């Protein structure tokens, strides 16, 4: 009898570790209250929101809608990913003792964990507006300048103040979606005059020319996702531009796609790059690469190519595969 009880306990532990709960929203429910009911911690409500990507506004949920409630282990949210990308966590990692190997939880171990979310530099992206300031001259009229050199911009009094940081951009290419810029460096304003200012370059991601532009500093880093949700998504787009305008590209490089936060994609999300193959009068998608979004704009995003089985090129189709959980 005792052995049967132990086996039943192990069964339920395993079930909890490898499944997600479903919940039907009732009148008067809030994510705050639902988190309190399932997690005994109302402040965990953002986890439920991020797992249910159809919810645009967390304050607006409706009766009869279905929620996925992720299981939490040790305060973090993990889920079962595809079998090719699983590693096991020890029982200690989620606070259960004396648990056999079959009852261990899982999380994704794909190579996109190698993305340095805190150091996103030399970033090619499409901006909604042209950077506000121009680089007029540089120290000693050099062709190129780098870190610790001095430049002058047309940002004057009222535009910037001493100590302000600026992001420096190069202009890469014009597209139907807008102009592609690249972050080339960072500078600090050291002196402000009526119509111009002096800027010391503190970081240079490439040689900086006086034809470059500048604007108020932007930090493009973002928090590392705590997990990923596999989705069967119909959100798809295509590659617009390859790093350095290359014709073909592969692992380690970047690309720009025609999906943005208006299409419900964001930083950290993972997409498959596919090639369409016709067989017996049917067209099927064959995965050739994986990309992860490192910057999301309104209608476009910049992504890093995480792995590639074949060269990828402009026009290749991309499909949302995993949603980043924060």
UniProtKB/TrEMBL annotation:
Signal peptide annotation: 1-19
List the Gene3D superfamilies.
Answer: LysM domain (3.10.350.10)
Q: What is this protein called?
A: LysM peptidoglycan-binding domain-containing protein
**Residues in LysM domain copies:** 21-69
Q: What is the lineage of its organism?
A: Bacteria, Pseudomonadati, Deferribacterota, Deferribacteres, Deferribacterales
Q: Does the keyword Signal apply?
A: yes
Q: Which residues cross the membrane?
A: none
Q: Which UniProt keywords apply?
A: Signal
């Amino acid at each position: 009898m005792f052995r049967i009880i132990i086996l039943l306990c192990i069964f339920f532990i395993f079930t909890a570790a490898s499944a997600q709960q479903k919940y039907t929203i009732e009148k008067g429910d809030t994510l705050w209250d639902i988190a309190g009911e399932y997690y005994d911690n109302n402040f965990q409500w953002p986890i439920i929101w991020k797992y249910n990507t159809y919810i645009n506004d967390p304050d607006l949920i409706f009766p009869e809608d279905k929620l996925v409630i992720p299981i939490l282990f040790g305060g973090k949210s993990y889920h079962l990913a595809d079998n090719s990308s699983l590693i096991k966590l020890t029982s200690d990692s989620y606070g259960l003792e004396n648990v056999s190997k079959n009852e261990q939880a899982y999380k994704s171990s794909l190579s996109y964990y190698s993305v340095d979310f805190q150091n996103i530099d030399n970033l090619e992206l499409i901006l909604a507006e042209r950077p506000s300031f121009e680089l007029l001259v540089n120290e000693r009229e050099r062709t190129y300048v780098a870190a610790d050199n001095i430049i002058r911009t047309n940002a004057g009094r009222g535009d910037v103040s001493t100590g302000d940081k600026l992001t420096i951009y190069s202009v890469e290419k014009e597209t139907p979606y807008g102009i592609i810029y690249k972050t080339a460096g960072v500078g600090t304003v050291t002196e402000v005059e009526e119509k111009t200012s002096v800027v010391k370059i503190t970081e240079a991601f490439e040689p900086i020319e006086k034809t470059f532009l500048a604007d108020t500093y932007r930090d493009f880093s973002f928090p590392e996702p705590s997990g990923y949700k596999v989705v069967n998504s119909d959100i798809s787009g295509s590659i617009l531009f390859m790093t350095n305008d290359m014709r073909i590209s592969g692992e380690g490089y970047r690309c720009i796609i025609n999906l943005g936060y208006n299409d419900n994609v964001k930083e950290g999300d993972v997409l498959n790059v596919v090639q369409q193959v016709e067989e017996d009068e049917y067209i099927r998608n064959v995965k050739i690469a994986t990309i992860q979004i490192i910057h999301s704009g309104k209608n476009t995003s910049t992504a890093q190519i995480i792995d590639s089985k074949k060269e990828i090129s402009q026009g290749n189709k991309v499909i949302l595969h995993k949603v980043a959980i924060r």
